[in-house]
Design brief:
single chain; mainly alpha; about 70% helix; about 0% strand; elongated
């Protein structure tokens, strides 16, 4: 594409705008998923193989987010591609629920300092993302277009929830957990290093 004048530059930038929008949407979706993953890992004292397999299972569909988001962006009039994106997010949500269920159900893996507020915050985040993925899927199934932008609102809701939780005195975020060294991987008895 030759840029010979201001008009050519504006035309070129207008052609780039959908690509930039797609990139930002995929980035925001990955950001929402990272925030929820961070909450889960933050409440984890150590990681074992079962947790690691659940986490790797979550990462497999996560790497498809840019592809499914691009398809939804390239074919905005066809809700099928938005539906594929939402179904991809739903698979990721199932793995996040599995991770959270596993961590919250195993005292040896869950950090002993987990508060009721920590649990409720993580539950709310996963619930918000689940509602967004199911709602987006239903809207796309019924022919709505551009449903991929539902995750922008999801990020805003999770951000507002975090701000409210932090202002209410969330111990792990407002004051911080300084000085603690938690093992990253569970080691067998007698292992050193």
């Amino acid at each position: 594409f030759d840029i010979e004048s201001q008009d050519h530059l504006q035309e070129y930038l207008s052609l780039l705008l959908p690509e930039i929008t797609n990139f930002l949407n995929a980035f925001l979706l990955v950001a929402v998923l990272w925030i929820l993953t961070f909450h889960i890992i933050h409440l984890t004292r150590r990681v074992n193989h079962s947790f690691l397999y659940l986490h790797l299972g979550m990462l497999m569909p996560l790497v498809l987010i840019p592809v499914t988001s691009m398809l939804a962006d390239d074919f905005p009039a066809d809700p099928l591609f938005s539906l594929i994106l939402h179904q991809n997010v739903l698979v990721i949500v199932f793995f996040l629920i599995g991770e959270w269920w596993y961590v919250s159900g195993h005292e040896g893996i869950r950090d002993g300092k987990v508060t009721h507020r920590d649990i409720k915050r993580t539950n709310r985040g996963i619930l918000i993302l689940s509602i967004a993925a199911i709602g987006g899927s239903l809207l796309a199934h019924h022919g709505a277009t551009d449903t991929r932008f539902v995750y922008l609102f999801t990020l805003l809701i999770i951000f507002i929830d975090s701000m409210i939780t932090d202002k209410a005195g969330h111990p792990s975020c407002a004051q911080g957990r300084t000085g603690e060294k938690l093992p990253i991987v569970a080691r067998p008895s007698g292992a050193t290093g």
